């Protein structure tokens, strides 16, 4: 009996959903609809199949692990040392699945898709799994609902079966072509979801990308265990070609098949797509957070930290975060990635980090800064500890707001509770530990000539960051 292994690709950055989605905290880790993050929705969609393999990058590993644990699941988490598109990641996942069973079937999913009808998705998935057992390379072709120019398409041959042979993969069309595709009835949106026999996938990839398969295999065979993660060999993985599974295999093989999917699929790739799937008022407006809308229509507003008011405007998306605000005509939503490119060219941290930065032990939020000082709000999870560290250029003053802190200062250990504080001078070894069962919250005031995050010398760390 074949083992079916879900494979969730969670390495994307979602640049068109800036400022909510950023390099180190991308869209799949956010709650954009419902009560779960997009990654959690994806995992729950296939929780009937068993423990998944998740491919992500080093910076996201602890957030991914926390989100898996939060929904009561377990997963094998494989860390990509560099971004190499989908083909190398899927090859590594297939090799890992083959360690479980030589007859393994892998179900490849993106972590950041919305599928409204889970029951219909699972029905189509069962059909695709059976086809994969028959040695077919299967993708899902989403039944188009409009002449969409933002997606690639696939064309299928006529067939009475729900598993249709793929004749052609086509790039994103212009409006005229998209309308022709919609009218033809044999073109489908390319979903980027696949079902493969792991062994067949490796065999087929070897025909078209033998060097990439060899490098992926070496990166997996030379991987190292790091806590609960599998860290691929960087030296080997860097040799993989930067290529998608479509370009590497599906556009070349004669064994590509498609199952039509009509289950409310959306890749939520831009703010107009998010607006599309939200509940709206009579004027077509949708909002989240502290928002006032007067004489507005067809607007989407997300307010994270403060009041946002719109008056007399139409067709805007306004996204407010603690350190950045985006105002965009929804017709230009695809171009938000140009803002991210500009931020990258200017070396602005807003393209990669939020003001609140997540760490394996919790998070810190830089709430104020000025000449020779910085103020942070620090949250430490129950049972967690920061590293034992010191700083060459800054002193720190900690005030406990809630919870209990066990502080190591030099050779001393002190227990601090609410409203108590401690001063850590420059050069003093120190560590914060939360011995309690509730989160610990502190205010940290840093003073000194240099306050950058790279002024940290770690002596001990429970997260392998020394």
Report how far the terminal alpha carbons are from each other. 44 Å
Strand content: 25-35%
Number of strands: 30
The major pleated sheet works out as:
6 strands, antiparallel
Q: Record the strand order, biggest sheet.
A: 20-21-22-29-24-27
Keywords:
466 residues, alpha/beta, six-stranded antiparallel β-sheet, five-stranded mixed beta barrel, 11 helices, 34% strand
What does this 3D model show about the protein?
With 466 residues, the protein is α/β, with parallel strands linked by helices. The chain is 23% helix and 34% strand. It contains eleven helices and 30 strands. The protein has a six-stranded antiparallel β-sheet with strand order 20-21-22-29-24-27, with no helix packed on it. It has a five-stranded mixed barrel with strand order 6-9-7-8-12. Strand 21 and strand 22 form a beta hairpin. The longest helix is centred in the first third of the chain and has 16 residues, at 118-133. The protein is globular.
